[in-house]
């Protein structure tokens, strides 16, 4: 770890990535019982383990920056989780699952890839190797689903992408406005948003799925919570938090 | 050299049942060095490990199974 404290806003930025990965781990774990094939279920279980491993690493860095360990590990209310809002709840079948976790996982990777700080040297490389598998898998599945179930894919993307863009940050955060650009990241929020949208436009280019109705101006900057990188006050459910913290497992604890 | 199953493994990867998977595009071409002893005398044990993004190798030098990420060194494109 470096001796430097991170600049203002950087701890919240990393907290948002870490909490998003925490919820991704939970959602991938749920997916492992809901996929259409054994291979898909194995992929979900595998990705869940990797996301939780990444969370452990990122929480370690956050503790070094003064975050309370108990708070990090779940002693907090739903509205204190900084995860991307599309992961709060996922209501739907496996297609909705995939079309939700896919763009959010990719957005989290883009944000992490943008971090330019020595505390992350090596860690981002390692996470990238694991994310390579996640994102290749998502895209292969999304391409196939875009041909087979275009209506479901398009409607889910129209619902999920605005919240995912809010997680990345407001469109107005170009290189001259983004407070972390140059101080903690080497890529502005506006550039990351454009790259994320361009990726899915290219992925669906040869399908009937269109992203033209996605609200690309979201989030309204005046309503955007810069700490939690979202607009709403909501958060994961109490049930999710119980599972994430292992509260139910406490009865099995050996004193 | 004898492998842990008692079979002659001196022919390296080509002798293993799992070697058919070595032609898969998602499996790294070059075997890694053993992370415990540094030996390059390793062979593919399984195309899948504890997670599907990993594969298992067996080190003939220190007789240890170890896991290796398939996409070692790869990073997902970020549109940069």
Explain what the structure shows.
The complex is a heterodimer of chains A (255) and B (80). With 255 residues, chain A is an all-alpha fold. Helix content of chain A is 56%, strand content 0%. Chain A contains eight helices and no strands. Chain A has helices at residues 10-31, 38-64, 69-72, 94-114, 123-148, 150-168, 189-203, 238-245. In chain A, helix 4 packs parallel to helix 6. The longest helix of chain A is centred in the first third of the chain and has 27 residues, at 38-64. The model of chain A has no long low-confidence stretch (mean pLDDT 93). Chain B is mainly beta. Helix content of chain B is 0%, strand content 21%. Chain B is built from no helices and three strands. Chain B has strands at residues 42-46, 54-59, 64-69. In chain B, a hairpin with a 4-residue loop joins strand 2 (54-59) and strand 3. The model of chain B is unreliable at 1-26 (pLDDT under 50). The A-B interface holds A 42-43, 46, 49-50, 106, 109-110, 113, 125, 128-133, 135-136, 187, 192, 194-196, 198-199 and B 50-53, 69-80.
The overall pLDDT average of chain A reads: 93
What fraction strand of chain B?
15-25%
Secondary-structure-based class of chain B equals: mainly beta
Biggest β-sheet of chain B, characterized?
A: 3 strands, antiparallel
Mean pLDDT of chain B: 72
Strand content of chain A: under 5%
């Amino acid at each position: 770890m470096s001796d430097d404290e991170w600049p203002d806003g950087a701890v919240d930025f990393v907290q948002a990535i870490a909490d998003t990965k925490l919820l991704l781990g939970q959602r991938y774990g749920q997916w492992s019982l809901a996929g259409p094939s054994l291979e898909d279920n194995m992929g979900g279980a595998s990705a869940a383990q990797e996301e939780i491993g990444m969370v452990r690493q990122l929480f370690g860095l956050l503790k070094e920056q003064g975050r309370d360990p108990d708070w990090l590990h779940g002693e907090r209310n739903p509205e204190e989780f900084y995860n991307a809002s599309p992961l709060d709840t996922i209501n739907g079948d496996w297609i909705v699952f995939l079309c939700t976790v896919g763009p959010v996982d990719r957005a989290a990777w883009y944000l992490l890839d943008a971090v330019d700080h020595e505390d992350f040297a090596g860690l981002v490389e390692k996470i990238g190797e694991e994310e390579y598998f996640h994102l290749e898998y998502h895209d292969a599945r999304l391409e196939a689903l875009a041909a087979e179930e275009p209506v479901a894919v398009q409607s889910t993307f129209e619902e999920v992408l605005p919240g995912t863009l809010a997680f990345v940050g407001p469109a107005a955060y170009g290189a001259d406005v983004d407070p972390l650009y140059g101080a903690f990241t080497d890529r502005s929020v506006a550039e990351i948003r454009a790259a994320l949208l361009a990726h899915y436009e290219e992925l669906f280019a040869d399908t009937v799925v269109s992203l033209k109705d996605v609200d690309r101006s979201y989030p309204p900057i005046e309503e955007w919570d810069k700490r939690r990188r979202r607009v709403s006050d909501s958060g994961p459910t109490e049930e999710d938090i119980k599972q994430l913290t292992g509260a139910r497992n406490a009865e099995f604890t050996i004193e | 050299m004898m492998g842990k199953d008692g079979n002659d493994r001196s022919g390296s990867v080509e002798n293993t049942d799992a070697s058919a998977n070595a032609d898969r595009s998602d499996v790294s071409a070059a075997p890694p060095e053993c992370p415990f002893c540094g030996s390059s005398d390793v062979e593919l044990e399984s195309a899948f490990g504890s997670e599907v993004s990993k594969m298992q190798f067996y080190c003939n030098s220190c007789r240890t199974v170890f896991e290796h990420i398939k996409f070692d060194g790869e990073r997902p494109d970020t549109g940069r």
